[in-house]
Design brief:
The protein is an alpha/beta fold. It contains 15 helices and eight strands. Helix 14 crosses helix 15.
Length: about 350
């Protein structure tokens, strides 16, 4: 049985970033007197100078550490800095890149990690993995631990770019095909499904699929999206792997990132939502359900809007399986001919052409 840990806190409130010391005192006694390093980047420091100043002043012995990129080397440098200067608490303040880097550095240095996201673009805020740059444009997923606490300030998230929040919705939508691939893997290979992790991930999808509020900038929706992304991360922690959140649609995303990074850039959450449409077709599932959700939230999954040409689309799918050859998905049973993929591409171009709406 996989051993897992859960966060002490998941707090989603307005203005809570000004009270981190107070709300954390029950699970980290004397946190106000511990050495704290606040990890962020230069851009966020410019965007949130008062918030970071208040956060820093909330602790008697703290400093701000600026990162430049989300590379493995920089994560190791940060871990070394934490150890050399005896920091016991690491606060990640930022988006996915900052949070993954801070999370991995805290894991290596055995420090307490507090996650303070400034946007909700994917489920990395609660996941037990960190995606870091390795060589050139390549990235690798590293196992680590989930945050000790996840603290979300609704006021900060409401100011996040709409596209980043749409990416968060897209990442949650992709669980529809990921979960089906997990069941397929179990049926073919005999690998077991963790029923609890499966249920948590399905709940994350359903919370977005059936939520009545579609305005992503409303306070109620931000709370629902936070919970959905956290559930996605916790499902991976419980399962001991990323199967509850990652199937063929994620392999498509990896293929775009690893093989076509010089030509296109599609945010992770958008790319996996884009990949969910063909994956759903390959699985023979109810594609109208996926289309409905994508249209309701106006998720921008039209390939050409992201400079994904028909040729890139075809080659990305044909190379997707090789990005994670140990992972059994519907791609192991699917004919990925040029003609079939070209037809799907043209259908997506027409279906998700928002200029026609």
């Amino acid at each position: 049985m996989n051993r897992f840990r859960l966060p002490y806190h998941l707090l989603v409130e307005e203005g809570i970033f000004s009270r981190v010391n107070e709300v954390m005192s029950d699970c980290v006694p004397g946190i106000g007197n511990k050495k704290v390093v606040i990890v962020t980047d230069q851009n966020l420091q410019k965007l949130f100078p008062e918030t970071l100043q208040d956060l820093s002043q909330d602790f008697h012995n703290s400093e701000i550490y600026l990162v430049e990129d989300g590379s493995f080397d920089q994560a190791v440098d940060l871990a070394k800095y934490i150890c050399m200067h005896d920091f016991t608490v690491v606060i990640g303040f930022g988006g996915g890149m900052v949070l993954d880097l801070a999370k991995y550095a805290a894991f290596v240095s055995k420090a307490i990690f507090l996650c303070l996201p400034t946007t909700l673009s994917n489920d990395s805020l609660a996941s037990p993995v960190a995606v870091l740059g390795t060589e050139g444009l390549k990235r690798k997923t590293f196992r680590c631990t989930i945050p000790s606490s996840i603290i979300v300030d609704v006021n900060i998230i409401m100011g996040a770019p709409e596209g980043q929040l749409l990416a968060g919705v897209g990442d949650t939508i992709s669980k529809y095909t990921a979960l089906n691939d997990w069941k397929l893997d179990a049926a073919v290979t005999g690998n077991k499904i963790d029923d609890f992790a499966y249920m948590i991930s399905k709940m994350a999808f359903n919370s977005i699929c059936y939520h009545e509020e579609k305005s992503i900038k409303s306070k109620s929706f931000i709370k629902v999206l936070t919970q959905a992304l956290v559930m996605g991360g916790l499902a991976m922690e419980i399962a001991g792997n990323s199967r509850p959140s990652s199937g063929a649609e994620h392999l498509f995303c990896h293929s775009l990132e690893e093989n076509f990074a010089d030509e296109v850039y599609v945010p992770h959450g958008i790319a996996v939502a884009m990949g969910s449409v063909p994956a759903c077709i390959f699985q023979g599932r109810n594609i109208e359900k996926i289309k409905r959700i994508l249209h309701e939230y106006r998720i921008p999954v039209r390939p050409s809007d992201w400079k994904v040409t028909e040729d890139i689309f075809i080659r990305a799918w044909q190379q997707a399986g090789s990005t994670r050859p140990d992972r059994y998905t519907i791609l192991n049973q699917t004919e990925l001919s040029d003609s079939r993929l070209a037809e799907i591409y043209r259908e997506m171009e027409e279906e998700f052409d928002n200029s026609q709406c």
